[in-house]
Amino acid sequence: MFDNEVMSEPYQAGTAPARGVITRAGAAVLARTTLQAAFQAPLTTQARRNVLYCLISMPLGLATFMIVVVLLPAGLLISGSVLGTVVGLMMLVLNQRLARRFGGWHRRLADRFLNARVMPPTPFRRPAGSVIVRLDARLRDGTGWRATGYLLLKLPVLTLQYFALGFWACGLYDLGFPLWWLLFRNHPAATTLRPLPTATPPPFNSVLHISTWAATLWAALFGVALLLAAPWLTRGAVAVDRWLIRSLLGPGTLAQRVRDLELARSRAVDDSAALLRQVERDLHDGAQVRLAAMAMNLGMAKEKLGHQGVPDDIGRIRELVDAAHLNAKEALVELRELVRGIHPPVLDTGLGEALATLAAGSAIPVTVSAEVTERPSPAIETIAYFCAAELLTNAIKYSQANKIDIAAALADGDRGQTLRLQVSDDGIGGADPEGGSGLAGLRRRVGTVDGDLRVDSPPGGPTEIVVELPMTA
Amino acid sequence: MRVVIAEDAVVLREGLTRLLDDHGHQVCAAVADGDALVTAVAEQKPDVAVVDIRMPPTHTDEGLRAALQIRQDHRDVGVLMFSQYVETRYASRLLAGNAAGVGYLLKDRVADVADFVAALERVADGGTALDPEVVSQLFRASRRTEGLNTLTRRERDVLGLMAEGRSNAGISAALFISGGAVEKHVASIFGKLGLPPSEGDNRRVLAVLRYLGTGE
């Protein structure tokens, strides 16, 4: 809009403008746009979102600060003593867990209101092993400590945000001063009124005292000034917060990221080696056995048939050929299942089609909704498909559900577009991703591509499992 | 011939039992893992054991380990390894020191029922039956290729069949040549490789295997 004015003005003059004219006109335009921007700043969406963010983040930040500021020193102190070590360590572990969770809340809040797209830190991976090993991993979990740092530093930031909000509140109040005066101070003319102070944002003291209606205009002007300053203050306070969130609630330093990637890579390699071994095992114990048995049956039948003449044991030969036939069919079935286990051909036509095929074979009614307008990379589709297959199998086996829903859709996550697969059922719940179940394996596989698997399955149900995958591996 | 079978795939175990029954042999035990095999052999004192290499619980080499133990504890019991793949290391360990009463066949060979039964009988009698695949891998793995290079193609065929455990008659039938021609080839092979000439089937195999570097 402003660009247009800048462009059109010299041409409306009808002449090729001289150099000085441009400068003067430009300065005028600049001044006007600056003023306009300054007066519009309190009214922008961004300002509103910043204020909303501050309003929500203040109570949240205060609450999480209180929890951490109690847990952390208490945990440290108690674990330092001889008797309280266990309790202290438990408090520190609790602090670590809570800090991660609280950090997640703050991060999502910032994502929602500040458009601060901060990638979530890699989820805590509970190592297999004794309590000591797990404890050690928790205590060395850098993400947890950084989140703790954020929650503590949040207090000074909150103070800043509090002052900024003060400007807004006082500004609005003072702007309405003439109105308040008319509403509440319409006393008879002879009444002597105590001067009324204008609202002044902390940490300043009120300097302006209003005793007549005419003077309320000064208060209103003061309010306008406060309101003009408020958006810049909020912006500053929020910027500090955003910077802290970026550096403390994100995925961490480059080194951390490298470590995570190394872990993911080794998992991916292990995963594919395990898959190959499984394929070998399936072939060895399945189709190969069937074919060997078939060859044996046919060999025996051939021997009984002899080279010429009518065989004397035709019944036995028939039996052997029957057995060979059966083995051949079994071998075909096993090979087909194996092939589908490696890569389901229907997946080539798209995830939606593959999921529908999957659902068609289920004993429990399954509804499938797939709104995947843009195809993820083949590796991602394959992982999504196998997750759906495994989750469906689990639901059928354990959930006692009456119906199962599978939904695949594209979603806007913290890291751009993601594929979101959701499998839910109305069964008995109690699915545990931490146990040695297939869920842990799935989470591992999903983790190889930086995906995430979340389980919500309270005892008694219902169960909802969400798998989030990046669009490319 | 009394046979013990160790094979974890039911369909093969039952098929083998039936096959041997049909050929007039007695299957005195059919088991599904290594420990059961060792026990069954100790109890039944069979002439020969047919042993799958991969069996529960670990599905790796329990069959081989059971077979080695049987070779150690019951010298008169023949052992025929029966597997879906050839592992030269396994064959070498089994043949180490003594090739008498040892066999190693791919499961594919059961398709030629008569050959399979003949090989099993040979092992039961203290002879040898190596799968052509095993022999060719041993050939390939052999470090003494110089000597092998001096053999004619026909002589190499004969050598392979000798290593499988065939007699001169068996070799002449397999290659469609006369018994005299086989004798001539065998003598030539022994001469070129510097092996001591011998008459018994098993000693011939032993000589060949020693040459190939697995007999020690």
Textual characterization of the structure:
The complex is a heterodimer of chains A (473) and B (216). In chain A, 64% of the residues lie in helices and 9% in strands. Chain A is α+β, with helices and mostly antiparallel strands and 473 residues long. Chain A folds into 4 domains: 2-43; 44-252, no CATH class; 286-342; 347-470, Heat Shock Protein 90. In chain A, α13 (378-399) packs antiparallel against α14 (438-447). Chain B folds into 2 domains: 2-131, Response regulator (Rossmann fold, 3-Layer(aba) Sandwich), CATH 3.40.50.2300; 142-212, Winged helix-like DNA-binding domain superfamily/Winged helix DNA-binding domain (Arc Repressor Mutant, subunit A), CATH 1.10.10.10. Helices cover 55% and strands 14% of the residues of chain B. Chain B has a 6-stranded parallel β-sheet, with helices on both faces. In chain B, α6 packs across α8, α8 (153-164) crosses α9 and α8 (153-164) crosses α11. The longest helix of chain B is centred in the C-terminal third of the chain and has 15 residues, at 179-193. The two termini of chain B are 30 Å apart. The interface between A and B is medium-sized, with 18 and 19 residues.
Quick overview:
The complex is a heterodimer of chains A (473) and B (216). Chain A is of the alpha+beta class and 473 residues long.
Question: Which descriptors would you attach to this protein?
Answer:
heterodimer, A: 473 residues, alpha+beta, five-stranded mixed beta sheet, two-stranded antiparallel sheet, disordered N terminus, B: 216 residues, alpha/beta, Rossmann fold, Arc Repressor Mutant, subunit A, 2 domains, six-stranded parallel beta sheet, 11 helices, globular
What is the helix tally of chain B? 11
Order of helices and strands of chain A: HHHHHHHEEHHHHHEHEEHEE
The Rg value of chain B, from CA coordinates, equals 17 Å
Q: Could you spell the SSE succession of chain B in H and E letters?
A: EHEHEHEHEHEHHHHHH
The SS-based structural class of chain B is: alpha/beta
Q: What topology, given as strand order, has the largest sheet of chain B?
A: 2-1-3-4-5-6
Low-pLDDT regions of chain A: 1-20
Report the principal-axis shape of chain B: globular
State the major sheet of chain A: 5 strands, mixed
- SSE class of chain A: alpha+beta
Task: Name the largest protein-protein interface in this structure.
Answer: A-B, 18 and 19 residues
CATH-wise, what's the superfamily of the largest domain in chain B? Answer: Response regulator
Instruction: Summarize the main sheet of chain B.
Output: 6 strands, parallel
Distance between the termini of chain B: 30 Å
Shape of chain A: elongated
Architecture per CATH nomenclature, i.e. the level-2 architecture of the largest domain in chain B: 3-Layer(aba) Sandwich
